[in-house]
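ok trying this again, last paste got cut off
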Amino acid sequence: MLWAHMTSSPAAVIFDCDGVLIDSEILSLEIEVELLAAHGLVYAPADFLHRFMGLNDAAYHLALDADCRDRTGRPLPEEALREARGPLWAACEHRLTEVEGCAAAVAALALPKAVASSSGATYLRDNLRRTGLFETFDPHVYSADLVAKAKPYPDIFLHAARRLGVDPAGCLAIEDSVNGVRAARAAGMTVWGFVGGGHMDAQGGARLREAGAHDVVETWAEAAGRFAGF
């Protein structure tokens, strides 16, 4: 069961942001896959999500550059990723929403909670404000900008637990990416894989379980029901 390796309900819940709290990953997928294809990097959406989702910007850029050198024999053009920033920010400005049911489920959670995200600090905070979620977590909103190594390393989860004043082993992490699940497991946390974001496909839950998720949650309504037992 969910708490097989724990003796009680969690002391705190730590949430990834993109694709878990806010439905931003579907926007990123739409924009970035198209722009990368114009530079000779063609990815099936499922492969793109499996490899890159949950990485911070620096790790993502390095991985894309390695692919570009392997496939085309040249480095990734500097403008390739800059081209995505404007359209992505515009998409977030006009189309970004919370993942359905998130605000109500999280607001009802009485336990200490935090956000631990691979996104840059400005992008993270602006998008949480756009969707009305920032105040729910403030001041416990933590970007990978704050740590030496981003997901799949455990640093951001350990940082969030430390700032909450709780033992990482007593935390529940909620993640939608393979890299995020691996990071939370490396931090010693229990992990729920979340597959309710608009970017997830039918194989998403299996990928998260394979990465180490202890259980998979399909919607925020389901999560809220489980939170009521804490």
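PB: full thing came through this time. Residues 1-7 have pLDDT under 50 and may be disordered.
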